[in-house]
Amino acid sequence: MNTIKNIVVAGGTHGNELTGIKIYQKWAKNFSAYQEKCPSAKLELVHTNIEASTVCRRYVDRDLNRSFANRLLALKNPTAYEIRRAQELNLRFGPKGENTKTDLIIDVHNTTANMGVCLILSTRDPFTMRASAELVYEFPNAFIYYQPEERGESPYFGTIAKADICLEVGPQPHGTLDAKLFFETEQVVTRYLELAEEWNRGTLQQKPKKKVDVYTQFKDIDYPRDAFGEITAMVHPNLREADYQEVKPGDPIFMTFDGKDVLYDGEFPVHPIFIDESAYYEKKLAMSLTTKTTEEW
Ligand SMILES: [Zn+2]
């Protein structure tokens, strides 16, 4: 991205993830103070899943953050609230694709997993990479997760912009707030705005690149299940709150209800994240396995 002309900061894409909703409400009351962080771009705030937030649930009819694939955005007269909302958001901030009005979306989420402030990048966009590298040095609790996405098919809200950062902040039970995580998240979002301003002035590009640990999506794994689809094991006690830590082939990853270890049978070490995220039981996802590399960003 050469110049960042439009930035959207979003909260409440999942209606029970309160950090982003509270940032939205706080910032909306004092908008000019945040717009001033990046005067060279137009800032917009959005509360994405309003209906789900009023009942403090992740979603009403279906997951809004799984509703932005081109196929769903093109549906005629959808009945599900979240597909209608995705189409409205796409009209306002998209349309998804090369002609989108929005250069950058920062979408604020929470997770029950112990992921700190996870900066999720879906493209190798030069600004989001450069800015995120600065932020992992400024915030010891920040980590970079690279989850490459084919943008047209990707279901995530951020993919209607040219580039996006999805923040996943935790551990925080859904429907609750954690003051320390709130302020940390708010500072990270504010820094992205300030760094966008530096980018537009050309100064961020002149700073030396930094070595960063990058956790790259490898594969999602489910809990062990029986023939009826019931889970037969839990996340292993060794992995509780152990996001980003290395798991080697042969290490225990689950424990059955009889107390037996289930071992990781992969061929190389991985670094699981989103471990035991409560919203992912329905998605049959126990954790996302990543590989860790060191790169200059
Ligand atoms: Zn979320």
Order the strands across the largest sheet as they lie in space: 2-1-3-6-4-5-7-12-11
Output mean pLDDT. 97
Under the CATH scheme, the architecture of the largest domain is 3-Layer(aba) Sandwich
Net shape: globular
Counted up, domains total 2
Distance between the termini: 15 Å
Low-confidence stretches: none
Strand content: 15-25%
Fourth-level CATH superfamily of the largest domain: Zn peptidases
User: What's the CATH class label of the largest domain?
Assistant: Alpha Beta
Q: Output the CATH topology of the largest domain.
A: Aminopeptidase
Question: How many strands?
Answer: 12
Ligands bound, unique: zinc ion
As an assembly, this protein is: single chain
Biggest β-sheet: count, sense, barrel? 9 strands, mixed
Give the H and E element order: EHHEHHHEEHEEHEEEEEE
What structural category do the secondary elements indicate? Answer: alpha/beta
Radius of gyration: 19 Å
**Total helix count?**
7
What does the secondary structure layout of this molecule look like, with pairings?
Elements (H helix, E strand, L loop, with lengths): L5 E6 L6 H12 L1 H5 L6 E6 L2 H5 L15 H4 L7 H13 L10 E7 L5 E6 L4 H13 L3 E5 L16 E8 L8 H23 L9 E11 L11 E3 L16 E5 L4 E3 L7 E3 L13 E10 L1
Helix pairs in contact: 1-7, 6-7
This protein binds zinc ion.
Zinc ion binds next to loops.
